Amino acid sequence: MDGVYVKPLLCKIITCRGTVSRQWIFDVFTPRLSLLLQDSVFHISASILGDVASIFGRNFTEQFIVPFLTTLSRDPIWGVRKACCEVFVEVAQKCSSRVKETQLAPRFIELLKDSSRWVRQLVATLLCVS
Hints:
- 78% of the residues lie in helices and 0% in strands.
- The chain has 130 residues and is mostly helical.
């Protein structure tokens, strides 16, 4: 089966609560997570970050998800940056105040000046809603 189809399916499976056990996610999915996050279909990778943060909690989120999210939010493709913005708030909810203040908030504010108006609009909307 083509990897283009497998990755979205795997993402869908792990984000549907109850379809697989937390232990399976830890034993099988997590070792492959870094490869999945490096995939060329970055918007798929970004879209699952909030769900992965919910599954694994604060420490995992701060050590693995936040660095990846902030790096991915600088991607040259505006659609990837927009996908990151869509999960920024959800990821931030799983982080300590320190990480929010020192890492996430400054990057989110920078996105208000993004070269893409779609990214800027989304960030502005999220700031008004959140």
